Amino acid sequence: MRIAILSSGYLPVLDGVTVSVDARVQRLAARGHDVLLLAPRPADDLRRPAGLPDGVVFVGLPGTPFGAAAGDINPGPAAHAVIEQALAAFHPDLIHVDEPERLAWGIRRLPGLGFARRHGIPAVAFFHTNFVDYWGQGSRLAPLLDPFKAVGWRLVTVLYNRFDATLVPSAQTHRRLTGFGLRNGVCGRFNGADTARFSPALRAPGYWGRNWGLPGLDDRPVMLIAGRLTPDKGWSSWDKALPKLARRLGDNLGLVIAGDGALRPRVERLAATLPQAHVLGAVPHADLGALLANSDAYATFSRCENASLAICEALAGGVPVIAPRAGGIPGQVRHGENGLLFAPGDVVDFVNQMARLVEDKALAARLRGTLAAERGMLDWEPAFEAWLDAVSRIADAAGRGRRPPA
């Protein structure tokens, strides 16, 4: 198959979209498929990213900074002509668009869809991010936006309904989108983790002292917070939760915060008031597997996740997850089986769940046992197979002149 992938981002920018796109591109190329990858790059540097297989055709879309994450960019209107020319030269059998709403925000039109319609090529969208849920996150004005979010979700489904199919990696999100009017959804376990790089086998005695100069963490449980230090990741809740957690557990729990972003000075000030709390800054993705494996819990307050790759990687690393019962998270974290869930935004409930994990050794062992038994389900290979099967069926159905069933 000749498949053109239009993505809202690519490595070295590190997020769920870029990691998942890279996982699919690498496997498509390894299996002999012809791949065209179009992704935004800085307008003054459209060079091919490092690490792409030789056979993959890459075209950079001129972009400008976008959002709060360092290095994140989005293409502008000039990218439309670049996309049209690249697609015409490549002659794809199928066009796959990751985060079309974000790309359309910059390009001012849905990327690739006009070309697909003119040439009778199936066009598939992949729903990655609950952007509407992010509206107002971290702001005191957030409650005022709630009445407008239903309108936002309906507009999102109108956009996605223009594609031949929309792939949704979370059953919870799929039901939600369908409720707002999505008619072409195809739900499946399309996201995974590299279980070689994210493995409990990477856990090692003395890890924190040897690798990070933090020997005080080697003799106590460690809770890891990893991700962008930006308001959308729940830092208004962490500001309240971490002091309460410290009062509950004292220095019986180590806290490690891995990430960077606009809130880093604020996060560092908070960490300085807590026992055994350390801010590592940005950690390379290659080092994240060992960081997770040597932690005893991965925790998040983000209530806007769809099918979180960070959670998937934590589970693959054998680390119980403490997360809110919100978005697509309950489809990944099963309370009392592979992690613990708390009421969204409920600081007291979070502290109680984290304390349970630290104080109840039998519970911690049971969660880790479940994670060890289920690692194979989390690997990228079955996720890729499910994705490839879905897009192949969509391409076949479009070739027979009909839309695939929702």
TrEMBL record:
InterPro entries: Glyco_trans_1 (IPR001296), Glyco_trans_4-like_N (IPR028098), Glycosyltransferase_grp1 (IPR050194). Keywords: Transferase. Residues 218-367 form the Glycosyl transferase family domain. It comes from the Bacteria. GO terms for molecular function: glycosyltransferase activity. The keyword Nucleotide-binding does not apply. Residues 15-185 form the Glycosyltransferase subfamily 4-like N-terminal domain. This is Glycosyl transferase group 1. It comes from Xanthobacter autotrophicus (strain ATCC BAA-1158 / Py2).
